Amino acid sequence: MKRIFLTCFLMLGLTGCDLFNLSDETDLLTGRWTSNVVPQAGNCCHLDLTLDSNKGDVLGSGTISTPGQRVGASDEFAVEVTGSIIEERISLTLNSEYNPGTIEGSVLRNHNGNDIVIQVNFSGFGYSGRDIILFPR
User: Distance between CA atoms of 50 and 117, rounded to whole angstroms?
Assistant: First the structure.
């Protein structure tokens, strides 16, 4: 009986970190994500999103800032998004009948000292931006 207990204890000790790891890869995107793009400089677009991912489905809301009509100005839009994450690929759609748009990209691990970032392409509000990096906040 002591051998069984000792064997179980050793196996638990060796695999315990993974055995009780409750984080799920499909919940990878849950949290707040923001880019460091400055839309006033003419670059599109600054994204600030709070996402909730569950079993591959993603829901979220936030703001998207685009360059404004005047130099140094920006326009900010409140958005809601839905979509999915499959493996490392993310695909989101803006839930707006009058201003459709998409955010598509992939999860990058160990990117310039960050554990995880999301690199996306954005299209919407008459603008498009490529290779926008979203950092967790």
Answer: 14
